Amino acid sequence: MLRTCLPAVVCLFFAGLVTPRADADALADLAKYSALPAVDLSSLSAGKVVTARSPSLGTPRDLAVQAVYLVHAPLARALDMHKNWDATRHPELKVYLHRDFSTHPTPADFSASIPDNSAVSKLAAATEKLPAMGELQLSKVEAATFKRSDGGGFSPAVRDFWSKVLFGRASAFLQHGLSGEPPYDTNDGPIRVGEEVSRLLREQPNVRAAFRPIIDKSPLGGGTGSAPLAPYWELINEQGDGVLTLGAACSVQAGDSAQLLDLQYYASGGFYAYVTLYQMWPVTVDGKAATLVWRVDSISTQSIADLGPFDRMGSGSAMMKEIQRIINLFQKDIGR
User: Fold this and answer.
1) Which of 47, 110, 154, 312 could tie 163 with a disulfide, CB 3.0–4.6 Å?
2) What are phi and psi of 43, to 5 degrees?
3) How far is Cα 203 from Cα 134, in angstroms, rounded to an integer?
4) Using CA of residue 159, residue 250, residue 275, residue 217, what is the dihedral sign?
5) Around Cβ 176, how many Cβ atoms within 10 Å?
6) What is the distance between the alpha carbons of residues 308 and 321, in angstroms, rounded to a whole number?
7) Could you tell me which residues come within 8 angstroms of residue 235 by beta carbon, excluding any fewer than 6 positions away?
């Protein structure tokens, strides 16, 4: 899956393009709900990605950015392209593993060949320090189940521990939604991912209003939701550390448009929760069917809260650049 301001009036300029009523509705919705600056559809047609930081959120560890871009494909195909895009084919993104599993997982679903690199070694070393808390995001109950071994690196004991943690958390999420997830037990008290996600949406009323269809039918709305889920787990590099994550994706039709959610509800480090929402509208560009995509990335992470105000602004800029890079790679792949 693809993953990532002050309030502004969005002015949309479109010259030399065929713009039927559906296109005008898409542009009006984008102007009404987004925090993006002026968008030139002719530039989007050439592959430009426009990004902006969302209005400041009320909690120091929260950050959100927005992007808009064009896909030269009809809506249904553009939706499938987003669902099936494989980030592991790009080593620079440092997504080491991506594994899909069913909504009725087994422990075997969380066993895979783990690469040998410095990031993974740091994850293994942090695991070997358990049950001492601090470096990893776990509940105290989970941390207490680790049994040390004599093996170095990603030993069988480390592998078995994380397989059980991922299986347990994935099963709890699929049965009970975000409310079923064990907390992250930290020195400052428990962090509950359901509360983190709810707050990220509450702090962005325009986004919450625009994405009401998928919020109501997904775990974002409480429970497990009615939209079919596509669960997955990943091993990624987060600022030099190996991090295991759990996520789930789903999509819904919203009138003539579509909405897509990619929710990462567990991470062994790096962030507490990551929500990516996509609104896709069918448009016509140069007489051909295309899809206008509005993307909103929202993250809760203690690493931002620990920064000063100026550095937090820098984090927003860095996040926008990374989202733009991801979208550019996606555009190149689908262009081929």
Assistant:
1) 110
2) -70, -40
3) 28
4) negative
5) 14
6) 20
7) 95, 96, 97, 112, 114, 115, 120, 242, 243, 244, 245
Distance CA 268, CA 164 (A): 13
DSSP string, 112-143: -PPP-SHHHHHHHHHHHTTTS-SSS---HHHH
Residues in the chain: 336
pLDDT tens series, the chain, 336 aa? 554 322 222 222 222 333 444 677 888 889 899 999 777 777 899 999 999 999 888 899 999 999 999 999 999 999 999 999 999 999 999 999 999 999 999 999 999 999 999 999 999 999 999 998 889 999 999 999 998 876 678 899 999 999 999 999 999 999 999 999 999 999 889 999 999 999 999 999 999 999 999 999 999 999 999 999 999 999 999 999 999 999 999 999 988 999 999 999 999 999 999 999 999 999 988 889 999 999 999 999 998 877 776 677 778 899 999 999 999 999 999 885
- Rg of the chain (C-alpha set): 20
Other residues' Cβ atoms within 10 Å of the Cβ of residue 180:
16
**What are the backbone angles phi and psi of residue 277, rounded to the nearest 5°?**
-120, 140
Within 13 Å of residue 156, how many CA atoms lie on the same side as its CB? Answer: 2
Q: Which of 274, 210, 268 is nearest to 244 (CA)?
A: 268
Q: Which two tokens stand for residue 303?
A: 């690493």
Contact 126, 244 (CB under 8 A): no
DSSP annotation of 307 reads S
What are 64's two structure tokens?
């959100």
Q: How far is CA 171 from the centre of its chain?
A: 20
Dist CA 98 CA 59 (whole Å): 31
CB 209 within 8 A of CB 202: no
Q: Rounded CA gap, 185 and 142, in Å?
A: 10
Beta-bridge partner residues of 248: 231, 263
